[in-house]
Amino acid sequence: MAGHSKWANIKRQKARVDAVKGKVFAKMSREIIVAARAGGPDPAGNFQLRTAIDKAKAAGVPNENIDRAIAKGSGLLGPDDSYEAIRYEGYGPGGVAVLIEALTDNRNRTAADLRAAFSKSNGNLGETGCVGWMFDQKGVVTVARPGDEETLLEAAMEGGAESYELIDLDENTTGAEVFCAPPDLEQLDTALKAQGYSIQQAELRWIPSNTVVVEDPDQARLLMKLMDALEDLDDVQSVTANFDLAEALLTTLAA
């Protein structure tokens, strides 16, 4: 299944490190605010909010922060910040395609910040649609300790899954990513939970249709620098790129 790569493993490891940063809390609170505003404050009837809360809890966001974000999004604390979801597209070093999802209350600020991050890594922010055609959006349910593969496959297909892939969540935990069409994400999540699976996360994700293997160390460093710079921006919620790293580079970059 497209989407699994050595770069994907690095991103999962990096996410666990970044989870200790307060900036991650702020990004997840923003996601909860937008979800509560769009579908109401009750997680039971708002799948977007429910998944945002689960994601925040998995990252260690305190319950009081979550409750405050829900209250803010539902208007209980007065008018909430008018965040809007915007997708940006650009080119990294060597023409690598980069797709960025942001929640912002100031388009001009966000665009300027993104443009600066790209330019510092020999990339450039492009026009809407310039690279979007290279990606497909999928629903992804991440299962921890999936157990028997055949049983997982049967449960996933009954829930509307298109495919799945076994992964390592960390050094001690196996996992699986189960993919579906975006409209089927809630159905798949519900079906797998009903079968007793431990769901780590359910989300919509952009997946490149093809990946470019990067073998040049200098290009790889610039790409990593760009990814870090983009993900560190307050308005950015997620960054996806269509590159993978050559095996020989992994040790070098890890050092």
Describe this structure in words.
- The protein is α+β, with helices and mostly antiparallel strands and 255 residues long.
- It folds into three domains: 6-73, Arc Repressor Mutant, subunit A (Orthogonal Bundle); 85-133 and 209-254, Alpha-Beta Plaits; 136-208, 2-Layer Sandwich (Alpha-Beta Plaits).
- The protein contains nine helices and ten strands.
- The strands form three sheets. It has a four-stranded antiparallel β-sheet.
- Helix 2 (22-39) runs antiparallel to helix 3 (47-58).
- The longest helix has 18 residues, at 22-39.
- The mean pLDDT is 87.
Task: Write the topology of this structure.
Blueprint: H1 6-18, H2 22-39, H3 47-58, H4 63-73, E1 84-91, E2 97-104, H5 107-119, E3 124-125, E4 135-144, H6 149-158, E5 163-168, E6 174-180, H7 185-194, E7 198-208, E8 212-214, H8 217-231, E9 236-241, E10 243-245, H9 247-254
Parallel strand pairs: 8-10
Antiparallel strand pairs: 1-2, 1-3, 2-9, 4-6, 4-7, 5-6
Name the descriptors.
about 260 residues; alpha+beta; Arc Repressor Mutant, subunit A; Alpha-Beta Plaits; 3 domains
Structural class: alpha+beta
- The top-level CATH class of the largest domain is Alpha Beta
Q: How far apart are the termini? A: 29 Å
Task: Quote the CATH topology of the largest domain.
Answer: Alpha-Beta Plaits
By CATH's scheme, which homologous superfamily of the largest domain applies?
A: YebC, transcriptional regulation domain
Outline the low-pLDDT stretches.
none
- The overall average pLDDT, rounded, is 87
Question: Can you tell me the CATH architecture of the largest domain?
Answer: 2-Layer Sandwich
Molecular shape? globular
Secondary-structure element string: HHHHEEHEEHEEHEEHEEH
Strand % is 25-35%
Strand order of the largest sheet: 3-1-2-9
Radius of gyration: 18 Å
- Oligomeric organization of the protein chains: single chain
Summarize the main sheet.
4 strands, antiparallel
Number of helices, counting only DSSP H or I runs of 4 residues or more: 9
In total, the number of strands is 10
Helix content: 40-55%
> Domains counted in the coordinates: how many?
3
